[in-house]
Amino acid sequence: MMKQVIFHETGLPENVLKLEESAIPEPKAHELRIKVSARNINPSDIMFIQGMYGITPKLPSSAGFEAVGIVDKSDESGTVPEGSKVIFTAIGTWKEYVCVAANTVIPVPEQMPDEIACQAFINPMTAFGMLESSGLKKGDWVLVTAGASAYGKLVIQMAKSKGIKIACTVRREEQKELLTNLGADLVVNTEKEKLQKVIMEKTGEGVAVVFDAVGGMMGARALASLKSGGKLMAFGALSLENMPVNSGLMIFNNLKIEGFWLTTWIESLSNDERRKAFKIVLGHLMQQDVKVDIEATFPLDSFKEALEAYQKPGRNGKIILK
Questions:
Q1: Disulfide engineering: 29 pairs with which of 76, 149, 290, 321, CB 3.0-4.6 Å?
Q2: In the prediction, which pLDDT does 240 show?
Q3: In the UniProt record, does the keyword rRNA-binding occur (predicted)?
């Protein structure tokens, strides 16, 4: 038997998640069975539990999309040897064992700790993929909303290494120094400052691209911070509100809005391109030239305490379930 955190109905995680026991799953011929060693909590996990994500849960469902673990049972072809440590994504990783297709896992470099490996896929690959897709060149300005998020901190570091100028938004004054030290050229506290005004003053004409994780009014203000011919790439809706779009602004400033979803981008790559992308991202993390922050670690059966830590205002690092 194995432990798993599951929900039988959608709702707030603290109300609907339960720890239950179930049979250890048997992998299909093309699948591996992985004994999960660590998972991180992402905003997408919380939205999925609430039924507010792009993937609808098939109830009852476990939570979590991203994890690291040891291959406990290989596929029939022996593609990945038993005992190998791998990074993987699946629908429902908050359980002790998960079965996934053998051709979808990523081998973990030997020296990489579980706490880093379990967050090496979604946020780092999203940051890398958006920079690759953006058309941004050295010297261009990008505006990142929710700059102090795990994704925001990664994209600041990756953009900096390419010579791209980074502006980002925060809601706490103490986060300004943190992001400036990471390499941000401009940090705007939107609780105290008017975003468009500061952006126009500091950049002269506005930013070339916006990476927007928030939507709602923040997304609208970010859109208004673009220079003529600029582009907003929407990849999240942390505000849980749709962005009101100013049609006149779009028309006369020749602006574009496009969506970015990691799954779609990865599927658009060839096998060689995918391997190269993973190699670059894991290389960044291994060499520590791109760092990830860890706030606290909890065992799986302490998921309620982990969720409380996740929801703590001003949290600067990831919450890990081991």
A1: 76
A2: 84
A3: no
